[in-house]
Amino acid sequence: MDYSSHEEFWYGNCRERVGWFPSSYVRDQYLTFQILNSNPSIPDIPSLSYFPQSMRFLRAKIVQELMQTERDYVNLLQNIVQVTKFLSYQLI
C-alpha cells in the first residue's frame, strides 16, 4: 500500500489490482513487524513529493469526484426535505 493523507482510504495494489482501499482493510506490514519485534521506533511518513506526478494527479481527480458526489448527495437530501415539507403542508 502507498501513503495516503486521507485516513479512510489508502491507494495501493492487492493481487494484481490497483486502486483505493478502505483503511479498515489495510494493515501496515512494516509497522506490524516493528510492533511484534518491540522496536519503539516508528518510520517517518513519506512526503507528497515521494509519489509520481501521475499518481498525485489521479488522486486529485478521485478526490474531486468524491467531493462532487457528496455535493450531489447533499442536494438530493435537501430536495427530499423540501418535498417532504411541501407534502406535509398540503395535508394540513
Automatic annotation (TrEMBL):
GO cellular component terms, A-Z: cytosol
GO MF annotation: an example: guanyl-nucleotide exchange factor activity
InterPro entries named among the record's database cross-references: DBL_dom_sf (IPR035899), RhoGEF_domain (IPR053086), SH3-like_dom_sf (IPR036028)
PANTHER family: RHO GUANINE NUCLEOTIDE EXCHANGE FACTOR 3, ISOFORM L (PTHR45834:SF3), RHO GUANINE NUCLEOTIDE EXCHANGE FACTOR 9-RELATED (PTHR45834)
Protein name (record): DH domain-containing protein
